[in-house]
Amino acid sequence: MGMSQQAEPAVTTPPAPGRKETDGRTTQRGQVLRLVARPEFGVFLGAAAVYVFFLITAPPVRDASSMANILYQSSTIGIMALPVALLMIGGEFDLSAGVAVITSALTAAMLSYQLSMNVWVGVIVALLVSLAIGFLNGWLVVKTGLPSFLITLGSFLILQGVNLAVTKLVTSNVATDDISDMDGFDQAKKIFASSFDVGGVQVKITIVWWLVFAAIATWVLLRTKYGNWVFAVGGNKESARAVGVPVTFTKISLFMLVGFGAWFIGMHQLFSFNTVQSGEGVGQELIYISAAVIGGCLLTGGAGSAIGPVFGAFMFGMVQQGIVYAGWNPDWFKAFLGVMLLGAVLINLWVRQQATRR
User: Fold this and answer.
1) Alpha-carbon distance 262 to 111, whole Å?
2) Residue 238: burial class (beta carbons within 10 Å; 0-12, 13-18, 19+)
3) CA separation for the pair 310, 144 (Å, rounded)
4) Closest residue by Cα to residue 130 from 249, 248, 261
5) H or E element that contains 216
6) How far apart are the first and last CA of the chain?
7) pTM of the model
8) 104-117 pLDDT, tens per residue?
9) To 10 degrees, what angle do helices 24-37 and 41-57 make?
């Protein structure tokens, strides 16, 4: 009987230390660590630092109209960086994204002008062409097992050559003809390239589309089965296939999403400038990929977010316009971007190490 009385403390005392470990300070620390470990946390700090830097060194940045221009430049990068980021989370690359934008714009412009058709016909056909390019890239990657780097590098070279050769063949020039006086142009311009007034400042519609697409991409990644599939195929496609994830469908659809983004930006460029230069787009794919990487998307796939590339694109837009507003030589733009990319990657690495340190 005495022994049973001595055993009671051993039974009742263990829960007490457990309750002490979950006090408010421990819970708060855990929440902070989870926040710091988020892939977009590091790029948020980087974007804030770049903004403050140019706010100090380039006084025109403080003007509302200047910020509208910065956000516009960011949106033209960010709209494409979103599907590129989703594709990277899914474990693949698309090096043809930059020239695919021009392919889409050239298709819509030449089809509408040369055949004297309503521009909406060209817009729809351009969408189909962009989706077909994405489908072909994805299908080749899945069926051949070759790295997407090689497949899309081939697509990049093909599209670059076709863009220039076909444009010269059809228009006898390196640019398309002006389509601003064609039927349907004004309606299409309102959707893809219009502006609206906010407090006396002209704001481009692409900024709205950018935020809408980012919200949709975030919801898809975090709240839908498809989002789980994207993370699964990027982490380990064989394991994902073993648990019933449609790997082929997921990867091909991600490439087609990049095609959709290329179509949208291509239409924006066409209806903003009324014509398209066939040699443009080269190098833009690196900007899109860099924005995604700066935004926390791993090169190995399986990790990332849609919010991170939003901040990554903002950093690019901030630098691109900030250099101009600061009165610096624009030749330093790419060098600045390279430094920013390396810095952001190192910051992300440091933040993750701090978050996982016990």
Assistant:
1) 18
2) exposed
3) 33
4) 261
5) helix 205-223
6) 45
7) 0.86
8) 999 999 999 998 89
9) 70
